[in-house]
């Protein structure tokens, strides 16, 4: 074989290794994003599973607050049927507001605030909220890293060839939710 053919083969092999390396890196990053979303999904599901117990505990004390309890049930159903990240983020935001309403109304019922089931569920939801916050932060970091990889040259060429798409950040669309809420017990 001539020297030119050997050089051409080496260049083609190096290029193939480069493409494979970039492709594998993009696949790995995309899978990390999907895993991070799955962690959020698990925590959201856990929270939605706790809510019926909280609602049942609160129902007896809050018969005149039926609209809040109905809203929570509707949000839970809508969340189960939602598909996109933005839909779930929007419903999650609305649910946080409804839960804050329950906690605020609970202030009016000292017996409810002292109820061990209510306190236990409130603690579980608080722990879940902390895990959700951490999971959302981790997810957004993974999405940012992945999207950055997609946009960097020459990754963007390879990403385009293999049809990699950017992922959506988990963000709060409702400006009211961004405001501090004071709930005291």
What does this structure look like?
The chain is an all-alpha fold and 185 residues long. The chain is 77% helix and 0% strand. It is rod-shaped. The relative contact order is 0.15.
Query: Based on the structure, what is the oligomeric state of the protein chains?
Result: single chain
Number of strands: 0
Question: Helix proportion of residues, in percent?
Answer: over 70%
Mind describing the biggest β-sheet?
A: none
What is the general shape?
Answer: rod-shaped
Q: Would you identify the regions where 5 or more consecutive residues have pLDDT less than 50?
A: 177-185
Q: Report the order of strands and helices.
A: HHHHHH
Overall pLDDT: 80
How large is the share of residues in beta strands? under 5%
Number of helices: 6
* Terminal residue distance: 83 Å
**What's the alpha carbon Rg, rounded to whole Å?**
24 Å
Features:
single chain; 185 residues; mainly alpha; 77% helix; rod-shaped; disordered C terminus
What's the SSE blueprint?
Elements: H1 3-59, H2 66-81, H3 85-106, H4 110-114, H5 116-151, H6 155-161
Quick summary:
By secondary structure, the protein is an all-alpha fold. The chain has six helices and no strands.
